[in-house]
């Protein structure tokens, strides 16, 4: 068996050839056996073994197997063959430097005079293979940070669009372990950081320490947990800091000034300003009060401010950026395109077009 623990991918030899195992959301891939070569009389023929490596591919299948060109064994002057003992890592093509974190991404954009585009999608809607492709599409279309929602059965902060997406995802059997496996595979291919949007209960079920170390291991940079009040976030903040995860806290239009100041002081990565009261969801317009709220936060901190909830159109994005926001978060509109499309392909195409229109509005 060939095993790479860094990516949880295994190749197992079966009678029909090599098989990829440990993938609960994908069928095994089989590669035919290599044909044996006959030896010519008087000569020794040494044929190098076929070594299969996992390499990324932008298709619904995620991965394909490719044959590596390995030279034939060399010979010593004595005529005996030897093979180099140099280590071969089949996953070397997926090893990349850790991308910038949330705060560093905002710092970089500030020096360029740009505002961050932060799209949100729900993991597993319509399925995990499509989520992989959606993450790649968002990255290629210029997303600066991506929020990935973990589906939950009781999403109190989410409106009907994202609630429906979570229900569809869970009905398909999406679970946190499958999401982690998917992220471990796709994160090395992305140039922008990912922040997980999750509720507190799934974290408690796993254990705070274990949860933080696990999401760090798959390359997650930030966390947004909408149902944890500041007073109950101490353990989360401590473990997040220990694992170099930026825990983003939220402030709303009804948050008192003194409390808002405490929240922005504790928040890492950026401050998440909820643009309106109530749950997430597309709205016809953005309240003018958001401009005042952005100003109040910026008087209290130098940390970047990103506005979310109700941002659903290019004109919204442009308006909020003009009010001084450092980032704009677009969720329900993205989720609706993917979840309600007639096919995953159509959903991805619509997502690409929409993301480009949002990016253009920020240019």
UniProtKB/TrEMBL annotation:
Chain segments annotated as coiled-coil in the UniProt record: none
Region (Disordered): 29-49
Reactions it catalyzes: (1S,2R)-1-C-(indol-3-yl)glycerol 3-phosphate + L-serine = D-glyceraldehyde 3-phosphate + L-tryptophan + H2O
GO CC terms, sorted: chloroplast; cytosol
Keyword line: Amino-acid biosynthesis, Aromatic amino acid biosynthesis, Auxin biosynthesis, Lyase, Tryptophan biosynthesis
One Pfam family cited in the UniProt record for this chain: Trp_syntA
Xref: Gene3D superfamilies: Aldolase class I
InterPro entries from the UniProt entry: Aldolase_TIM, RibuloseP-bd_barrel, Trp_synthase_alpha_AS, Trp_synthase_suA
Superkingdom of this protein's organism: Eukaryota
NCBIfam families listed in its UniProt record: trpA
Subunit structure: Tetramer of two alpha and two beta chains.
Name of the protein described by the UniProt record: Tryptophan synthase alpha chain
Gene it is expressed from: LOC110413704
């Amino acid at each position: 068996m060939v095993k790479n623990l860094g990516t949880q991918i295994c190749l197992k030899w079966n009678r029909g050839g090599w098989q990829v195992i440990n993938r609960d959301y994908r069928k095994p891939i089989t590669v035919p056996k290599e044909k044996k070569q006959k030896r010519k009389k008087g000569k020794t023929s040494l044929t190098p073994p076929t070594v299969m490596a996992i390499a990324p591919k932008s298709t619904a299948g995620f991965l394909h197997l490719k044959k590596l060109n390995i030279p034939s064994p060399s010979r010593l002057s004595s005529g005996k063959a030897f093979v180099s003992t140099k280590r071969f890592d089949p996953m070397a093509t997926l090893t990349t430097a850790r991308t910038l974190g949330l705060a560093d991404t905002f710092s970089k954009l500030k020096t360029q005079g740009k505002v961050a585009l932060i799209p949100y999608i729900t993991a597993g809607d319509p399925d995990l293979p499509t989520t992989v492709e959606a993450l790649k599409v968002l990255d290629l279309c210029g997303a600066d940070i991506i929020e990935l929602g973990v589906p939950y059965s009781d999403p109190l902060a989410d409106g009907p669009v994202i609630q429906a997406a979570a229900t569809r995802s869970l009905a398909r059997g999406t679970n946190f372990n499958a999401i982690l496996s998917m992220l471990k595979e796709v994160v090395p291919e992305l140039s922008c950081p990912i922040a997980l949007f999750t509720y507190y209960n799934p974290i408690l079920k796993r254990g705070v320490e274990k949860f933080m170390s696990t999401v760090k291991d798959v390359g997650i940079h930030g966390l947004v947990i909408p149902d944890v009040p500041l007073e109950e976030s101490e353990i989360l903040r401590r473990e997040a800091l220990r694992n170099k995860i930026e825990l983003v806290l939220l402030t709303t239009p009804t948050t008192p000034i003194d409390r808002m100041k405490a929240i922005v002081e504790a928040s890492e990565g950026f401050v998440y300003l909820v643009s309106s009261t109530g749950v997430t969801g597309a709205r016809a317009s953005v309240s003018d009060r958001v401009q005042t709220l952005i100003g109040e936060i910026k008087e209290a901190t130098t940390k970047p401010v990103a506005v979310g909830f109700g941002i659903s159109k290019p004109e919204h994005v442009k308006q909020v950026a003009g009010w001084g926001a450092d980032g704009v978060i677009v969720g329900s509109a993205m989720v609706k395109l993917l979840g309600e499309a007639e096919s995953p392909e159509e959903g991805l195409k619509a997502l690409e077009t929409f993301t480009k229109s949002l990016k253009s509005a920020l240019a």
